[in-house]
């Protein structure tokens, strides 16, 4: 961090400048974050304790929910606390850490969504071989690979960032630390770094999105050979996955597929994918999945019965 020692503290401009609007945002976003933690945590707990949810699909869903909690927690708590602060500051080390973990969990989620699409492809297109292909060992390797992919991606981002000289100004036009707004503060030309981020984040997002879209097209084509009940159940599951994919990749592609030289940060889009989307995912999966709803009801009934004893 020797090249960045001239600046030790950064100041966020925040989402809005009006104190009244910020207080309203605090009242709105605090329950959203709490709902994210509780909702996703409930899915993790339900999958862990329910015998009926031990299939690979729910195994991946539990890890997706764990990633959602972690991803949201890298940004939301600091952002929500800053809504009540007149001056919103963060250390340079804290800023770099926030970039690392937000990209780490964000890319881990991308890979998990790809893994979940592969799981649905095998289940629908190769049903007789499903349990042999999606073995317990393979499922753990795919999850570990998702975490590893996120780690490698984030290390690249951080190696780019810590080489840049930051000698002032120290006001970052955002409500959390991300690469493009931080690059604007560097005391050097960052066009090359912007292109690396475009390749590392933007192309990763769009290629993964194209893989997901292609896989679901193949799945939908193969559903023609299934019974009406089989098609209904498969479509219900796939619809949940597709909805989550669109909600996650839409803002990511919008923000990262533009060069840094012409980049104009849309904070409201960033709020959507860092705070709102992680809350929506458990709602999407539980509302459209009868097995998860039944398992949660059993878990709740068991809790009530144990409380009455």
TrEMBL record:
Protein name: Olfactory receptor
Family matches, as Pfam families: 7tm_4 (PF13853)
Organism, as annotated: Sus scrofa (Pig)
Residues in the signal sequence: none
The family this protein is said to belong to: Belongs to the G-protein coupled receptor 1 family.
Entries under InterPro entries matching the protein: GPCR_Rhodpsn, GPCR_Rhodpsn_7TM, Olfact_rcpt, Olfactory_Receptors
Function: Putative odorant or sperm cell receptor.
Assigned keywords, A-Z: Cell membrane, G-protein coupled receptor, Membrane, Olfaction, Receptor, Sensory transduction, Transducer, Transmembrane, Transmembrane helix
GO cellular component: plasma membrane
Ranges of residues in domain G-protein coupled receptors family 1 profile: 39-285
Subcellular location as annotated: Cell membrane; Membrane
Membrane topology: Multi-pass membrane protein
Record-level Gene Ontology MF annotations: G protein-coupled receptor activity; olfactory receptor activity
Record-annotated membrane-spanning stretches: 26-45, 57-76, 96-118, 138-160, 203-223, 235-256, 268-287
Name of the gene encoding the protein in the UniProt record: LOC100515430
Classification via CDD domains: 7tmA_OR4A-like
PANTHER family on file: OLFACTORY RECEPTOR
């Amino acid at each position: 961090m020797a090249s960045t020692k001239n600046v030790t503290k950064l100041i966020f401009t925040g989402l809005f400048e009006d104190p009244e609007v910020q207080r309203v945002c605090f009242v709105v976003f605090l329950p959203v974050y709490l709902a994210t933690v509780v909702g996703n945590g409930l899915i993790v707990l339900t999958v862990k304790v329910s015998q009926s949810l031990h299939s690979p699909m729910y195994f991946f869903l539990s890890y997706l929910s764990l990633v959602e909690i972690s991803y949201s927690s890298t940004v939301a708590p600091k952002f929500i606390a800053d809504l009540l602060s007149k001056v919103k500051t963060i250390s340079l080390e804290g800023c770099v850490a926030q970039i690392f973990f937000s990209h780490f969990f964000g890319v881990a989620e991308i890979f998990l969504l790809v893994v979940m699409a592969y799981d649905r492809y095998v289940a629908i297109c190769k049903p007789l071989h499903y349990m042999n292909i999606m073995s317990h060992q393979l499922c753990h390797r795919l999850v570990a690979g998702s975490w590893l992919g996120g780690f490698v991606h984030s290390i690249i981002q951080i190696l780019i960032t810590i080489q840049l000289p930051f000698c002032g100004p120290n006001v970052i036009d955002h409500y959390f630390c991300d690469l493009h707004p931080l690059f604007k503060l560097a005391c050097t030309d960052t066009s090359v770094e912007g292109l690396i981020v475009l390749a590392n984040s933007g192309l990763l997002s769009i290629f993964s999105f194209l893989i997901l879209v292609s896989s679901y097209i193949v799945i939908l084509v193969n559903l023609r050979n299934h019974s009406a009940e089989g098609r209904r159940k498969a479509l219900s599951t796939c619809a949940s996955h597709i909805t989550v994919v669109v909600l996650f990749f839409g803002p990511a592609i919008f923000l990262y597929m533009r060069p840094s030289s012409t980049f104009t940060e849309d904070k409201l889009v960033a709020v959507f994918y860092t705070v709102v989307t992680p809350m929506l995912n458990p709602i999407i999966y539980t509302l459209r999945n009868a097995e998860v709803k039944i398992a949660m009801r059993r878990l709740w009934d068991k809790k009530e019965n144990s409380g009455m004893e």
